[in-house]
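SUBJECT: A protein chain and its fold
Encoding: whole-number codes for local backbone shapes
Chain under study, with its fold:
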Amino acid sequence: MDPNILYALIGVFAGAIGLLAGRVVFGKSSDKKVQEAEIQAQTILKEAELRAETIRKEKELEAKEKFVQLKAAHERDTLERNKKTNDAENRIRQKEQSINQKENNLDKQIKENEVIKENLNRQIELVNVKRSELEKNQEEHVRRLEKIANLSAEDARNQLLESLKNEVQTRALALQQEIIEEAKQKAGKEARKIVIQTIQRTAAEQAIENSITVFNLESDEIKGQIIGREGRNIRAIEAATGVDLIVDDTPEAILLSSFDPLRREIARLSLQRLVSDGRIHPARIEEVVEKTRKQIEEQVMEIGERTVIELGIHGLHKELVRMVGRMRFRSSYGQNLLMHSRETANLCATMAAELGLNPKLAKRAGLLHDIGKVPDEESELSHALLGAKLAEKYGENPAVVNAIAAHHDEVEMQFVISPIIQACDAISGARPGARREIMQQYLQRIKDLENLAMGYSGVEKAYAIQAGRELRVIVEAEKVSDQDSDRLSFEIAQKIQTEMTFPGQIKVTVIREKRAVNVAR
């Protein structure tokens, strides 16, 4: 119910209640007051009725307005629905028209296809007739050719196939040979390019190790202290270090002589401490030499760690790191072993990168390839096999182990990086000035090597290649058989081993080839 109507009704009820209350309260003695109350109540009733009438009319007007609004909204909805219905009917009619048109077109295409099919059938019949005629003519020609050539069709076909087969084989062999030659030329050029680029990009200094170290003195008076009474000090130093001390007329200098650079370094540092301290006697000498030896061991570890960090090699076992540091005090044919290994590592990484291989793995193998030259204990194994054994013991990658073992062809190469290590080792060792060897002695050794091979019967040519590391012997195929080639290679290798002095090892390769030559005139 509307609140205004409710208020009007409440007013009417209030007036009536007030009237009744007046009568009850005042009684007959207060008729005047009662009349006034009645008049007031009637007034309130009239006002309430007027107000209620006014409210009723307002509500009727509001209801009419709302009805008009609802009617207008209903008409709008009806118009929209009618419009949508008309649009849908129009679309349906358009679709029906398009479907009818497509049906008509389809009927036309079916009729046209039937006509085309009939034409094709007639043409196929004509082709079949022509084919049968052609087959008859071919059979007739074959019979005539058989009469003329006195051969059956099968024999003629076999002869033709045989001749074509021979011709194709000849051409295929020629093409294969051309492809092989072209591939060899390209491979050779590419290999030379890679090697040259690798060498150019890896510039390394070369240091020749000497077997003598000069220890400078402040004055010649110290020589007497070093020699000691009846030579006991110098004998103690030599016994403790394994180094020969040469005290001669050279002013303010003593020569330390030993093939082992590590021993010479221990002796040099020990002498330096003894001279600085001034106390030189056998007990003190042994104590200082022992301390110096421990200091050198720590220095060896530091050198190994620094080398590994500079080359960017991670995860190397501590024992291998220590052996890398020991390379600093070893030499190979006058070439410092650590510098040689570092240079080989850099060459391997560059060459592997040029070939699209793993440069980190190649660098690791290059650094460790001569690790067998610095063992803690002497072994009867070659340095390559010993190095591979050590690398395998300390958990190195199988590719690294194989590269170390195979870099002097003592085992078969099983990974791609193995020949890279071998090539880079040869490059580092063959650099001019890398290893100590007088040029005349080197040339004479190469000549003696070739002359030794030429002294055997059936040898046509002999070439010492790879800086004298390999001897290639070309024999005459008419005089030397395949079995004789194996025997000749073994005999030459044994003779070189017994009669010549050479660094490393020499590979003997005997080449025997049979050539068939004909002249077309």
Observations:
- Residues 206-210 have pLDDT under 50 and may be disordered.
- The first helix runs from residue 3 to 26.
- The beta strands are 212-216, 244-246, 253-257, 331-332, 335-336, 459-465, 470-475, 507-511.
